[in-house]
Write a structure and sequence with these properties.
The protein has 400 residues and is an all-alpha fold. It is built from 17 helices and no strands.
């Protein structure tokens, strides 16, 4: 793994001593990820409504998840190296503009085929937002603080569940699911202005030129390949499970979308609390240690929760599951952004994020078939096995 002193200056010029944590950048990037993840997470509770309104089954409607993920994976491979050449900020604000446009068009969609196309366009924007945000954070924060920074960014994944999903689910049940995407387009416009005004300017000497074939270098080094594999498995297992939680509760337990939204809110609250805590803890106890044990716990929780009937124990089970899922995110982001130097960080994060989206697409495809043919228990088993493989990748992931 690349060696660097804990307080060595980062790729972006700092405004104060490295020992003073800089909140502004972390909070803006949190907002960007919150926006993108809200869009992704909202699909789960909205899936029954989308399937009903557009005349398809929940299993078949899950193709919008696959399309979104494949588009995000493909475009990330382009925008990552681009951000190494022209700067993270330029690429990130462009992604926000594209996200706003795609969400606005989704508000007006009237057919399932058009929705699939627009979700692909939204995926292009999502690949930009995720890659640029994580790369910028990796550049800006020293490794000694990066667990904390990534903990704040990772809160975006789970605050989206607390705030975005319940509000979106309630709005969809009363106004229609298209309104949710209309609101996302407005939020994207607001974040565009905030990022443009407050993110640090791109460093003028950040331009790097590398061969297109240099991407293959990441697959030849064991630590980089392990980081890529961990991303594939982490996202695939979790999204495969969460995509069909709403449909499982609605079809098996006859739970309405309002109560599903509230359940997602409880899960999100638990995860929001765990995210910054796990980031801080990983800076002290070690990123790798937290990654391993959080994934072991999560793998078993997937299977256990799928066998619990509706009631207080299901709520508790999903809350604990969310804590385990949240606890692994910040240390994984912090560790994998340190594997390479800033001059190729965007490229590597792009490859890693592409693997993440391919993991989502692959597991979502398998989960769609499993859900329609064998039910949610089969989906949970797929998620559990996928997640249990992540600690194995840590054999090749080492702390710097």
């Amino acid at each position: 793994m690349r060696q660097r002193l804990p307080n060595q200056p980062c790729y972006y010029p700092r405004v104060s001593d490295d020992r003073v944590f800089q909140w502004t950048v972390a909070l803006i990037l949190f907002g960007v990820l919150f926006l993108g993840v809200s869009d992704t997470q909202l699909v789960a509770p909205l899936l029954p409504l989308i399937a009903r309104d557009l005349g398809t089954t929940p299993g078949h409607a899950g193709i919008i998840v696959t399309t979104y993920s494949l588009a995000a994976a493909a475009f990330a491979l382009f925008v990552g190296p681009l951000s190494d050449r022209i700067g993270r900020k330029k690429v990130l604000v462009s992604g926000l503009a594209l996200f706003g446009l795609a969400s606005f068009l989704t508000y007006h969609v009237s057919s399932f085929s058009a929705l699939v196309i627009l979700r692909g366009l939204t995926g292009l924007a999502a690949g930009t937002l995720s890659t640029s945000s994580l790369s910028l954070a990796g550049d800006y924060y020293p490794y000694a603080q990066r667990g904390r920074a990534m903990g704040i960014l990772s809160m975006g994944y789970f605050v989206a569940v607390v705030a975005g999903v319940p509000v979106g689910a309630l709005a969809a049940s009363r106004l229609g699911w298209q309104w949710v995407f209309g609101c996302l387009s407005v939020a994207a416009g607001a974040m565009f202005l905030v990022a443009l005004a407050w993110l640090p300017a791109d460093k003028s000497d950040a331009i790097r030129r590398r061969s297109v074939f240099s991407v293959m270098d990441h697959f030849r080094k064991s630590d980089r390949l392990a980081g890529i594999a961990a991303a594939f498995l982490t996202s695939g297992g979790l999204v495969g499970f969460t995509t069909y939680v709403g449909a499982w509760l609605a079809t098996t337990h006859n739970i309405g979308i309002d109560r599903i939204g509230l359940l997602f809110m409880v899960a999100g609250i638990a995860a929001v609390g765990a995210s910054p805590l796990s980031g801080w803890l990983s800076d002290h106890a070690g990123k790798r240690t937290i990654i391993i044990w959080a994934n072991v716990a999560l793998a078993f929780l997937f299977v256990i929760v799928s066998r619990i009937g509706w009631g207080v124990w299901l709520v508790v089970g999903i809350a604990v599951l969310s804590i385990a899922a949240s606890a692994r995110q910040a240390p994984l982001h912090a560790l994998t952004t340190e594997i390479v130097g800033p001059e190729i960080r965007g490229e590597y994060i792009a490859v890693r994020n592409a693997a993440s989206q391919l993991g989502i697409a692959s597991v979502a495809m398998a989960s769609a078939s499993a859900f329609d043919s064998a039910g949610f228990t089969a989906v949970a088993l797929i998620a559990g096995v996928t997640t249990l493989l992540i600690p194995l990748s840590c054999i090749w992931l080492r702390e710097p």
